[in-house]
Amino acid sequence: MKQHIVRIAIGLAITFFFIGHAARFYQVPFITQLDNIIYDARLQVTMPRGVDPRIIVLDIDEKSLGEIGRWPWSRNVMADLVNKLFDKYGIAVLGFDVVWAERDTSSGIDTLDALAQKDLKQTAGFQELYQRLRPALDNDGLFGQSIKGRPVVLGYYFNAEENAVRANAIPDPVLPKGTFAGRNIGFFPWQGYTGNLPIYQRNAAGAGHFNPKVDDDGVSRRVPMLLEFEGAYYEPLSLAMVRTYLGLLSNGATPKVEPGYPPERFLQKGYAGLEWIKVGPLSIPVDDTASALIPYRGKRSSFPYLSLADVIKDRVKPEQLKGKIALVGASAPGLLDLRSTPVESVYPGVEIHANLIAGMLDGKVKQKPPYMLGAEVVLLIFGGVVLTFLIPLLAPLWASAAAVTGMVLITLFDFWLWSSGGLVLPLAASLLMTATLYTVNMAYGYFVEARSKRHITGLFGQYVPPELVDQMAEDPEKYNMEPRNADLTILFCDVRGFTSISEALSPEHLREYINEYLTGMSVIIRNKHRGTLDKYIGDAIMAFWGAPMDDHEHARNGVLAALDMLRECAAMNQRFEERGWPQLKIGVGVNSGRVRVGDMGSEIRRAYTVMGDPVNVASRLEGRTKYYGVGCLVGEATRRLVPEVMFKEIDKIKVKGKDEALTIYEPVGGNIEVDKRTSDEIKMWHQTLGLYRSRQWDQVDVSLLNLHRMNPECALYELYSKEAGNKRRNPPPPGWDGVTVFDEK
């Protein structure tokens, strides 16, 4: 046991870490998020699916908006709807997942009132007509009268902002101030509300809030059964509808809301004890924040949907609605009542209420009482201590079996609680603790047993760039540092006008300037495009792709890296300008070909690098970028290997030391990224280049003028305009093939 003391100490530390999370001494976001993912997976596997016909969603959908008009509709339309739903269709309960917070003056009643009280106050005929017409024009009164004496439940919402308004009216609380005095329940304080017009609230059978309890990942998994406002407690829309429905079934008064506690003898000091809400014959489980888990039945449309337009236009059979619980809500995207849920990322909020109503009536709401926190802590203590002492004593194979067995048993126990008892026990901390204990023990053994391999890694590290060492260490025998021939892509990057930059900056600022430039470009080469950073040559960078790790897309990665480097240069210039530093201008040359790559140098110093003619060409291309006024030049071989990138042919050149002409190109961007204007400009330029090489100077001038109008910032067109003028005055020899010859490197 003594030889395992370090492993045991680490194991106990890991166990206590996860216990701290479970006991809520602190919260680890990753564990919480994994718990949410596991909860969602369990819910999706076990939800009953199918359609529940008891609850109907009367949908404000795109069809309704198209036929009836923009929402909100006039209250006289809603009054007719309510009358029709109860008188013709015989629904049981009607709930509104909307707030009626503003008066409806669309009938012109305000104008009529103003005339009656001012200009036409003394006109007897008008006053008589006014008294007769006003009730029919009072849309708010019509709607208020339509819901009076009927089982209609309204919706409203609370606001948590510091200076939140308190608009209109909300119902009386279901539990008075002081109900939970002395109990540590995690109610969230709300500061204001937006309720319904007082006339509606007075006439409605009830009202409930529709504030969900959204988790940190933006998903709605719970709804507060009790919300605290100014010390009193308010119910949600779903619970208010259930209470109204139960009152109808019993032909009596609406049942009251009662908090549910276990017997006092089971209560520990400091335990809040609120485990359920009792409503008549129903007990609704709640968690430590007095919220109920939403018992999602399935994906969207787990309840019948009827378009409100069809109801209003009498296109619905009465038997489709008779005796049903009806919810008016919106699924139209423009009305912004779509939520992210465990079953779908875009889910109508009205169906959340429907799921809760069905779950409460059926007793299918999952339980996550406050004591589950203690149960999770006990499970972690037991499992953590057992595995901490057991795994170090076992061989790797048996340790793996023990860890897998532990995770399987914990998962099965958790699923049994979920399926049989309806209990939600957090699982992520237990699984992660088991996996971490196993991984740390295996890593510790590996650390001791793999010294020889790490020694080899250290030897390789002095020859190859650090970013490749880890990959090579996974299979060290696969890689040979001996020089070899390989097809690679080479990149050179250099700063233009570095002398003037160095003269304009202090030594300290120059160091920062160069460090930021080299770091930004190196990150693009190494981290983003997996290139090998060969060396820094003053302010120049040399890199290549394809060795020591094979890269079949070496040319593509090199070109994309060059384009990203130019974009990063533009971003850097914005930051440099803010500091008052000179603008950064770079030139990039990229070329592909067969080169010699490997560990080369002298007995004093060696390095993993590349040599060969394609390397020299890449360097020469970088040097020509300034002449042509472009940011990047690539060779013909590279262009052929990257068909998915659009290139602009720049010229055919002969560089010093080379007899063959080389066609050079500027990469513009991905074929699908380049807009039509740029594509048309490149096509016109290629035509102009053909005219230039065939000595049609007048047409060249016209084309270059048009190109200059399309892109006045392009220095290339100015260069060719001057060259065309020179060749018009001094015609090239008869054998001229359009190749530009450079005598200098």
Describe this structure in words.
- Strands 19, 20, 21, 22, 23, 24, 25, 26 and 27 form a 9-stranded mixed beta sheet that branches. Strands 1, 2, 3, 4, 5, 6, 15 and 16 form an 8-stranded mixed beta sheet that branches.
- Helix 22 runs antiparallel to helix 23 (697-710).
- The protein has 24 helices and 27 strands.
- Strand 22 (586-601) and strand 23 form a beta hairpin.
- With 745 residues, it is α/β, with parallel strands linked by helices.
Distance, first to last CA = 71 Å
Unreliable residue runs: none
Report mean pLDDT, rounded to a whole number. 88
Radius of gyration: 38 Å
Structural class: alpha/beta
Shape: flat
> What's the β-strand tally?
27
What is the tally of helical segments?
A: 24
What share of residues are in beta strands? Answer: 15-25%
Largest sheet: number of strands, sense, barrel closure = 9 strands, mixed
Helix content: 40-55%
